[in-house]
Design a protein that fits this description.
This protein is α/β, with parallel strands linked by helices. It contains nine helices and eight strands. Strand 5 and strand 6 form a beta hairpin. Bound molecules: zinc ion (ZN). The site of zinc ion (ZN) has 8 residues, from loops.
Length: 220
């Protein structure tokens, strides 16, 4: 029987980093649907060929195909032995219901769904702190919180002015957080109603510190 885990968290909360540390320390295998799609295409499987055609046509890969890929992956021996951290699936309640069936059919179980909460001010700060050098040949990247330039707005390396990409503005950050909340609220309710949801708060601290809170709620 394999244990499956899911981490849910807003952009800027450090979900990816916490997932990497979790997998490294516990041996649980990171299963990303994006990677599964690329692997299927690279392997040239029937499923992979279908996916290639769908993507080439500019369409979205259906829930059925993603679910079939996840099911195949979860049936492999390494997952049975070590468990998995699912990334990119499920995103919706119907997908969560499908996953529940996949796990039950495989004799596996949802060990925990971790909701990573974080202070909104901290998230906004993180999502808007990146600055880029405007000199394309230099391309230096700064972070006004964690890695500021010596002189505000000026590149240390080449002296060119720094700028903020449109992806990193306050308006984009507000949008990203709103989309996250709208998309994940039903999933959070779904797992809470099944008693599978645990919560941690991501503090403005090194990832290793936040990992301690995560390990504690998971009993690792
Ligand atoms: Zn520069």
């Amino acid at each position: 029987m394999a244990d499956a885990y899911i981490f849910i968290g807003p952009p800027g909360a450090g979900k990816g980093t916490l997932g990497d540390i979790f997998c490294e320390k516990t041996g649980v295998i990171h299963v990303s649907t994006g990677q599964l799609l690329r692997d299927e295409m690279a392997a040239g499987s029937d499923l992979g060929k279908q996916v290639k055609d769908i993507i080439a046509a500019g369409k979205l890969v259906s829930d059925d195909i993603v679910a079939a890929m996840v099911k195949n992956r979860l049936a492999k021996a390494d997952i049975k032995a070590h468990g998995c951290l699912l990334d990119g699936f499920p995103r919706t309640v119907p997908q969560a219901e499908t996953l529940e069936k996949i796990l039950a059919d495989g004799g596996d179980r949802m060990a925990a769904v971790v909701l990573i909460e974080a202070d909104r001010k901290m998230l906004m700060g993180r999502l808007t702190s990146r600055r880029m050098c405007s000199n394309k040949e230099c391309g230096a990247i700064y972070n006004v919180i964690s890695q500021p330039p010596k002189k505000e707005g000026v590149c240390d390396k080449c002296g060119a002015p720094l700028y903020q990409r449109s992806d990193d503005t306050e308006a984009t950050a507000i949008d990203r957080l709103k989309v996250y909340e709208e998309q994940t609220a039903p999933l959070v309710d779904f797992y809470a109603s099944r008693g599978q949801l645990v919560k941690i708060t991501s503090e403005d601290a090194p990832a290793e510190e936040n990992y301690k809170a995560l390990a504690k709620v998971l009993g690792k």
